[in-house]
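ok trying again, last paste got cut off:
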Amino acid sequence: MLDKIKSLSKDTLIYGTSTVIQRFLAFILLPLYTNVFKAGEYGIVSNLFAYIAILNVFFSIGLESGYFKFASSLEAGDKKQNFSHPYFLVFINSLILCSILFFFPVQLAPVFQLEPKHASLLQYSAFILFFDAVVLIPFAYLRLHRRAKVFGTLKVLSISINLALNLILILGFHWGIEAAFLSNAIASGVTFLIFIPLILKNFTFTVNKQLYKELIKFSLPLIPAGIGANFVQTIDRPILLYLTNSDTVGIYQANYRLGILMMLFVSIYEFAWRPFFLQTVKDSPNAKQIFSKIMTLFIFAASVLFLFFSFYIENIAKIPFPFRGYVLGKDYWSGLYIVPIVLAGYLFYGIYINLIVGIYIEKKTKYLAMITGIGAAVNVIANFSLIPKFGITGAAYATLISYFIMMLSIYYVSTKLYKIDYEFSKIYLILFSTAASFAMYYFTAGTFLHEWYLKIIFIIVFFVLIFTFKIVKLSDIKNLRSLRK
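nice, full thing came through this time. structure:
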């Protein structure tokens, strides 16, 4: 078991290093945008990128997951067919959808809550969507073949180009919000060009009808699942814009983006997790024990991050930035209080990612559509119910509630398909310790204990509770080899 956990940890570390760099570079865009763009302008950018996230599902049509499933098992077709078949489907589908967006931007602008003068942003978005879609399978290929270093290098290169172009166009040429989309489109296009040799090497024109059939059967149910998942993550921006204004959306998005600090951890983990559990099921007779232990370790690590960033997010946001302003523009500080809510939402989403095992192993992806559909419905209802009364706080809570419902739903379904005996006594105590530490921090607001150098006390309280309840023992940390038993 220890070898398997070490394997996941090694992959997570490699993905993590590259992803941390990638996210850090992307994070620089937040102070750039919030110190240069007005809240209303940033609201337009945020809203359209939310739509791009939703449209990604229609461009990829679930075939990234289909590739992982069949390229890892070779149930049908050979290696090249398992690469070229999903790639061909994604390419043709993306080309059609990209053309529609590119040639009819003015007609489609109202659909995306854009004024006609901003219709050109849809054309830039078309290229972003196309190039991001046609590199999905090549990136999945790198993950499946555990070429994490190459994967990370290309991701870092892409965001570096994006960041450099943003800085040049916004600070050098004084472009407006168009710079955000053009920079992204060029960076995505360069990534595609780099992948061309790999695509040509693995592409074949031989056709395997059975593989096409299996791919479509497995992947199509993931489209509504993907739509539901992206609705949960992004639909709050369009609803918030509909119910309020672009200034409010800008403030909300800027502070929501600070939740990237937890999303970063979950994203790093997810990159390594999916190929890991698919391979572990094939190779290890004690796979369920491994998955159970990993769940406990994940929740422990995520809880520590939740507490740290909840306590220190205000200090981080107000760090002066070298070129201008602060990490978060001063005009956006009024929304900082929503960040712990966002962090908690991503913690529940991370648990959801862990629980996805049974559905993938048993190839019951149809349930994902049902689960994410429930999450999306809850999100929409909660947003319309809470935003009029609570504003951006209501939007943040709507997302948190959605992730919590999705977590409960997937646990119920996955347990029926592939029962894993999780360490619930430890998990409950970890969550209790997290809640207790956060409550102490919350109820001491305005006291000397909230000085930045004293906030560490509340994290120490968490660890004291962890060791008091014997959830984690020092001997366990020193003797990890006992996991082999």
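cool. Residues 62-219 form one domain. The chain is about 80% helix and 0% strand.
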